[in-house]
Design goal:
three-stranded antiparallel beta sheet, 85 residues, 29% strand, elongated
């Protein structure tokens, strides 16, 4: 499997909180990009690659790790893209 292209603009993004200099909390944008590959292994229709998911979701009431929020966001996106008419 080889990457052929990465779209220039994200198709989705979400905000989260991260620490900055001297412990100052900052808002960060996490972009979601579509990537085209030459082929996928048999039985695989899509995959997700992430890195550096350090932070907390923007909603301070729940304070979940950003990775948990990303997993939920991906489920919502899957429902939207796979099941919308």
């Amino acid at each position: 499997m080889r990457i052929l292209a990465v779209e220039n603009d994200p198709f989705h993004q979400m905000m989260y909180r991260s620490s900055g200099r001297r412990g100052v909390v900052r808002s960060v944008i996490l972009p979601f990009y579509k990537v085209k590959v030459d082929s996928l292994p048999e039985g695989i229709t899509a995959f997700v690659a992430t890195s550096d998911l350090q932070g907390r979701e923007r909603d301070k009431r729940s304070n979940r790790l950003v990775g948990e929020a990303v997993a939920e966001e991906l489920l919502l996106l899957q429902s939207y893209y796979c099941c919308s008419s």
